[in-house]
Amino acid sequence: MNAKDKSATRQEIVDAVSATFAESGGASLDAIENAIKGKIAEMEGAHWDADRDAPVKKAGKWKTGIGTILKAYYDLEDAQKNVSSLHELEQSVTEAMQKYEHACTAVEEAEDAYNRFNAFASRRAGTGQR
Description:
single chain, mainly alpha, two-stranded antiparallel ribbon, 3 helices
């Protein structure tokens, strides 16, 4: 959905809700429109760019004036970083396990060779050969 469609959709919602209230003898159209726009502004906060569906550009994160949308955006970014970090750690664990398994195999092979040598040496010692 492009920016013009989003703006048009917002306006359609404001118009539809306002017309419904007006037809029912409710609050004035301006009051309803202002309330809706106020709620949207509260959700967007001071630093949300609705046209780009992203925060207003800045180096780093905004600390103040963040609405619920920007907070959710930052929470998603943090969660994605955590998932990425966990994937890296998982890969490191997998690599460490593979190295450990190779080392265990090498130890078993060395023990087998040692035991074969000891058995051979014991047989030779028992026969008096050197």
